[in-house]
Design goal:
homotetramer, about 290 residues, alpha/beta, Alpha-Beta Plaits, Rossmann fold, 2 domains, seven-stranded mixed sheet, four-stranded antiparallel sheet, 8 helices, about 30% helix, about 30% strand
């Protein structure tokens, strides 16, 4: 296998202790690893240490499949939560949509241009509307109609399809359904949603209408991991745009679309490049 | 009186009807007025017409004191809410503070530099701390200690002082007390507060702590007119700043201070230049 | 013809004089026009008056084809430069591209979603690369290879094609060729270019490389009308994004792409909604 | 000496080599240092490694005065450029001004509030205007009139005064004079200037006038270290604000003042917290 440009990424969190940076960097150095990115953060209030380290597989003294084994004693010594990822594994992504196309269209454009390091084998929707768009990109489109009655039986089918397709990441690209707790439990910190407001303002439905009624001067969009509580998961990325009294609800929706697609794409890109670490319902984004 | 550079400003709101722009501009034109700013906005959803017109007093065919009388028939014909202001009247402003000085310090700096068209005859506080700062600028400082017991008797004293000083505008520059309904009633749309969050997110107390706990990626500040409902009044101006996981609560407070002082100063400046019109708990800002 | 929601738009510039607002609004009012947007601006330094007025055709007392004739005496009296447009005329747009697809892809997505009020009958390029993308949208794609030798003979062919297709607006969506003075002369203030820097910084070639070398902390993108002088035309819209020392040139290019597509789309949208007025190599954007 | 909260800061740059992170962190760990911040960056293009490490002096196994000696062998082995700083040394800052007061006023406000970790023993100016402001803060004010004839003889006097006051950092807070090469040579990367434009746009004089004439939609401010070439030094911080055709030159100046004071204060704060590392005429800002 030619892994010349491939790297290993360690994401670590644990109780803050002396020697963490020294021990992890020594582990990589001792095996001739060439570090191309290392960043750490200590949450002083909680005494939590968080680190990301990335080094080249090429020339590393431990074979790819032995790295986890070699690192385990260190992890155990410091009681680390840790995650080892390899960039030669390309994550498989499922995109969920309803009727609005701008986020799906934007993600597929990046995919097409090679800007997303991922495979996108399928799009899932509760409507038929966006099938032509997905098929235009030769991506399978699965329609699971959802009503309050059918939801309980449809979700297991969706989960089975995701399992069959070995999906690593679920992206809710303006999917207007709430995913159930069982679903969330299957993909912890692996479901990214775009919410069309500056959370925690205007959580829930119809945020642009609420923003209009409140007369805010700035609107926003928020990408977050989905947890059991609606719109309460760890925030990955947010951005805002200035508006004025001249903007009708339709104008807010139009301006918001550009925010939504950019913020969602940034969050997905950060996740796919293994830049996001979750702790205490927050994210550390190692940019 | 030399009013060469002085102007009259009309702020109008009424039900949308044909002929409004034509009639108002004709009124000014007919009397040889030189319009230096005119802007209007129609809220299509509510069918409300809102207008700001500003013209030079110099050369205008109606004397200053007769303008209201001359305009009244038009106002009545269209059932307008209207407000006529003159820039040769310099508004008198009272600044309320508690212990934090950055907003007061910033406003007084602008005042000193001649950037605020206002008189600031007094600063009012529930603490003694900022007396030296006010006195440094030769501004009277009044200390009204407030506890839950004394509040009911102190507020009338404060109102009496404001009346005695003929105050036009009250600025709550990080004043950590809630002003009562009677107070608000005395100064409708004439009390500006700075709230240290991006409203409606984190209304109420300790917004930076809440923002830190929620893990937002952007913080904000909001200047609004005070109404009876806490932090629910019409928003005049907002701004935001990017933060990251590296920012502690103290960092948010530090970064937030710069937002607060800039946003408050912008809102006060817009109000003093008669650029803000309130309707339906929102503002139209004619910039 | 059902023109229930269609409007007329007047864009006016002239020497500042008394009575301009009154006369124009009276013209609309006298003929029972319902104004839905009116905005004006006076450049005090140059004594130039600039106005945009938009009213509903439905119910207007002058038939569509007679409006210009009816307005002409007013225009002549005040020596106005003026432009009368109707929203029932859908502008025809040609998009020029080279090899980079993100701007074209984004514009076509908005077109597909009905967010651009325009017809896009053709895409023109000096390369074959983006033909599949255009054809995916059933848009004709014309390839005009350009070398320094062939340019002189190719440009007239391109102009002939544009004339044949009755093109109203040319959008240079990362078209990496300089259009000649004759071309510019055919489409005054009707060629919009996106430049991948915050002009006037980094005009000309390779702006991201220059930004990287200079170590700027913020990058930008600029949409402007094309004039004979390279990157010197009237600016319609700009936006920026924060960068850091961690960003390589490739990162700047990646982040810049999102800026470019959003800024270009905003500028094209403003032009198509008749919101932009050019004077003295600047724009007034009536938002 | 009680140095409980005091820290040591290492700023390192050198050719990128394996083992750098491991060796530096091992040095701190071996002596029982508690790292509270560590960040590194590799400029891949230039193969330059840059690092900042900060650890508590309290409990560190090497006494404060021996740390440099203890670290020297590591520095020599990797041929590092390095800088060791201690937070118990409070830098001494001289502020230079001309006639505009907003930046000085803002810096002194932060100083007064304890937000700047510095001593400010003197203000230097080529005018008398701001003497009352400095004296209000009990800060010595030195007036050095400068004309093209006197400049050559005045600058050595200024330098002598700075030496006498053991100044560590010079802040040019809208000082409208160019400091000479000898001056710059005395304070390499220790003179911070605020330029009132988004560099490299509008370098040199009258940037707001030029921005107005060019019709830009966004203005900016840039804080940078001063080098021999005017406005060409390493950029520390920049920020921008949106403007429109409605803004006159005076409006740009007014809006720009807020940018200038915030951007300058941020840059000075970053420098004083030892967060800025200069290489190749750029900065790495370890935030």
């Amino acid at each position: 296998m030619n892994n010349r440009n491939e790297t290993a990424v360690l994401l670590i969190s644990c109780h803050d202790q002396k020697g963490l940076v020294a021990t992890v960097s020594d582990f990589i150095y001792r095996h001739d690893g060439n570090i191309i990115h290392a960043d750490q953060h200590t949450d002083q209030e909680q005494s939590i240490f968080l680190q990301r380290a990335e080094w080249q597989l090429d020339g590393f003294g431990v074979p790819r499949d032995g790295i986890a084994e070699a690192f385990r004693p260190i992890a155990e010594r410091f009681a680390m939560d840790w995650d080892l990822r390899f960039t030669d594994h390309v994550p498989r992504v499922a995109i969920f949509v309803s009727r609005l196309e701008h986020c799906l269209y934007d993600l597929l454009g990046r995919y097409r241009a090679g800007d997303l390091r991922a495979e996108i084998p399928l799009v899932i929707s509760n409507h038929e509307d966006l099938r032509p768009l997905a098929e235009n990109f030769d991506i399978a489109y699965y329609h699971y109609p959802l009503t309050s009655e059918t939801k309980a039986e449809q979700e297991p089918r969706i989960l089975a399809k995701l399992a069959e397709e070995r999906i690593d990441l679920v992206v809710l690209a303006r999917y207007m359904q709430i995913v159930g707790p069982e679903f969330v439990g299957c993909y912890p910190n692996r479901i990214i949603n775009i919410h069309h407001s500056f959370l925690p303002a205007f959580a829930g439905a119809r945020p642009y209408h609420l923003a209009y009624e409140r007369g805010v001067k700035i609107i926003g969009a928020t990408a977050h991991y989905v947890t059991e509580e609606l719109d309460q998961g760890p925030i990955i990325e947010q951005d805002v745009a200035r508006v004025s009294h001249r903007d009708s609800v339709d104008d807010l929706v139009r301006k918001g679309k550009d925010l939504e697609k950019i913020v969602l794409a940034r969050a997905v890109g950060l996740h796919l490049r293994h830049r996001v670490l979750v702790y205490k319902n927050k994210t550390v984004v190692f940019e």
